[in-house]
Amino acid sequence: MLNYNRLLKSLSAADYRQLSPLLQFVPMPRGLILNPAGGNEAYLYFPTTSTVSLLNVMNDGEVWEGAVIGNDGLVGISLLAQATPGAAITEVQSTGGGYRINTALLNSEAHSTNALRCLAMRYSYSLVTQIMQTAACNRHHRIEQQVCRWILLRLDRVISNELAITQGELAVLLGVRRQVVAGTIQDLQAAGILQYTRGKIKILERPKVEARACACYETIRQDTERSHRMANKLNGFERSAAYRSVMS
Questions:
Q1: CATH number for the domain that contains residue 174
Q2: 66 phi and psi, to 5 degrees?
Q3: Does residue 90 have a pLDDT over 50?
Q4: Domain containing 91: what range?
Q5: Sequence-separated (6 or more) residues with CB below 8 Å from residue 97
Q6: Statement: residue 248 has pLDDT above 70
């Protein structure tokens, strides 16, 4: 299995050589809160085989997911600007791994961060698109469309056709009742699209999931791909031998 992050992969060989000494590969177990409030150190995270949920906590304690970050992006964009992190919680949703950089060390090596800051800025646009589209989707589209959108965004960011999530957890992320999600999963299973057993969703027919998803998924997907194409074009698809050895 390849351990790669698309943002890091789009760096030129020269930019990657400057940044690579700062990268540390770490396990990212499910449920881990990244950069918790009051922590002594802060890190940028570049998921490779894990996914991270960007969670919004309301005043009444309700939680809903604004975005998912996987091997397409990074966690901690605000830290690059040396800004205080917002109120959102970043929690590992799918167990895996990723690279991290201590932001204090990163800021002390300013010469190696220019290219990374440019990548982060481009990625931030696609992340905002995802947050806005998700909010609109949760407000206007049927629960089946929301569930299919949620599934597809994960499949794009993991190397597996299985997702570890309970019906109750998915209901919390979507901001709906568990019974509603359970009924939707049951309908999709009856249609032969997926299997749900013991907190795991196994996708059997991705094209059918895509057919039942709303246009929000395709909007998010296209915007993410556009961002990465721009990054790759600017760097001329250049790759260093050091990068290939570390990221494979």
A1: 1.10.10.10
A2: -90, -30
A3: yes
A4: 1-140+228-248
A5: 3, 25, 26, 27, 28, 47, 48, 49, 50
A6: no
